[in-house]
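so the lab meeting is tmrw and i was supposed to have these ready like two days ago... anyway. pasting both below. for each one the top line is the aa sequence and the line under it is the structure tokens. i havent really looked at them closely yet so no promises
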Amino acid sequence: MSAVIDFLTDPWQHLFMRRAFAVAVMCGVVSGVVGAHVVLRGMAFIGDAVSHSVFPGVAIAFVFHFNLVVGGAVAGLLTALAVAVFSQNRRLKEDTVIGVFFAAAFGLGIVILSTAPGYSGSLESFLFGQILGISDEDVLTVAVMGLVLLLLAAAVHKELVTVSLDRETARAAGLPVFALDIVLYALVTVTVVISLQAVGNILVLALLITPAACARLLTDRIGAMMTLAPVIGGLSAVTGLYLSYAFNLAAGGLIVLVVTAVFVVCWLFAPRHGLLMGRGRRGKDGEKADRDDAGLPKASEETAAV
């Protein structure tokens, strides 16, 4: 028992771990909320696109020696705006436009970085995350930006859900669909930027998408999904950090592996939509259908009666 208590309390004795826990939880919660909208809309590709589109901004910031997060945020927002504008052409699907711009942005970043000798080592923390080396200023930045993101997401929650479910109905209802597209892209961009220090540019898509995908498997209700996704993201981040501390392994990679393990469990055992649970349900439904064919009341009739 004492070993378990030591395992749970030892990391909190170190200031760098307390900072890491704070940022991990905040990033997990914010990514879960924003990621739920992304998954609901079927736009998982946008997370990958944004994580690549911030690259030229970071490259420029590195070359000219100013804040990498600011540079990445500006580049990501500009790319998101370009995607929103070009996606208005109905001849092109949204994922097509996203693919064009994220590839172009990443190529631009590589070209810019090629002008700066020795860049690979200097940007290692950007690519793979450096959550154990963040400062108090970083914690404050993530807290403020995260709070703003959550407030904005709450303010436009109903509108974003309406657009995600049926864009034409949203237009007919008078909702500003184009403006809401930009808002969603901006939410994703800032979420990606503040999560870079936790898991890095390469793995940030997992923190954005996987908790929301888990929640999608666990519930059919949008409200419950919006609650479960940040909980899964936050707990996975904390668990990954504990494992990182215990086994002296990369924190960002372990956070992603933990949340992926949760996804596999949900995929197998989710009450209604899990592979194994769903198979059992289908078996029961088949037996019920056989009974219905034998002359017993059908389920649809029972439902209609209710």
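ok protien two:
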Amino acid sequence: MLKHFAESRWYTILGATGFYAASSYWLLYAAGEHDLIGNVDFIYWLAVTASTVGYGDLSPSSSAGKIVVALYVIPLGLSIFAMVIGRIAAWVTGQWKKGLMGMNSLHLDQHILVIGWNEQRTMLLLDLLIRERDAMPERPDIVLCVKKDIENPMPGVIEFVKVDSFNKDEDMDKACVAEARTILIDNPQDDVTMTTALYCAKRNPEAHQVAYFDDDSLVGLLQDHCPKVECTPSVAVEMLAKAAFDPGSSMLHHDLLSVEDGQAQFSVKIPENSPTISVAKLFINLKRKHNAIFIGYAPNAKIKEMVVNPPLEETLNAGDTLFYIAEHRINAINWSSLDAD
């Protein structure tokens, strides 16, 4: 019987509750407990009695009524109440476990989607993204999408989706790939990264997409087909060679990329309604007003056309993306003041 109750459907539970209420009403009526079976009073009394709250403001007065309550209303009501609470608890636990296992479909937009699992490297990436996100005025959701059979590594902090393929609409729709603002792709296999990047560029061409490759030769191949995708090849060897001739270079670059204590590199897009700004005034006023150092810019957000250390007489226009070094991200910039004398 317990197994039957545990596996019963909701309509069965509702039917049992209806029978319980009707039979209790009839037995109380037969016992002459008319004070307990008023329309509102009966519902109220049955609820507090079956849930064992028992306020005591309404109670049976006859011997027959007391027997009905003691032998039928309370035992059966307690059983149904426990069954309902158990089913609700099981449903909530099931939903939580589905979310932990990445089985739920999400309903998000303008989020950051991380595709792939590289164990400690992915954990570091998520930690850095969370730190960066927490310093922004808006706090976009972060979603981790994996194929590996793991649980959510940061439950309650990030959203998590497990899929069978990074190239199937029914799977990637669970992660809302078409609505993502930023898509970061980092898989142990470069060929999976390549196919995933091609798929995401087709599903969401407006998203800012970044792909990491161990093999530098694949960067050009992907950008031939998806020029908007920003590729980040491994630079470990270059860092090693640079540090050999310029000691401290690796530590410098690590500090600029890190969001821990110390200076870091950030970027910001010049708003469309901003006036033209000269590099000379921008450099001086950015340092004077925000204690930040201007290092370069990308015209009209064309990252491939990066201009580093431009001449002082050069100008920046609305839509350009400027890069700077500062202790923290600058969230409020008065662009007119940066062009002041």
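from a quick look at the 2nd one: The chain has a mean pLDDT of 84. The longest helix spans residues 63-100. will dig more after coffe
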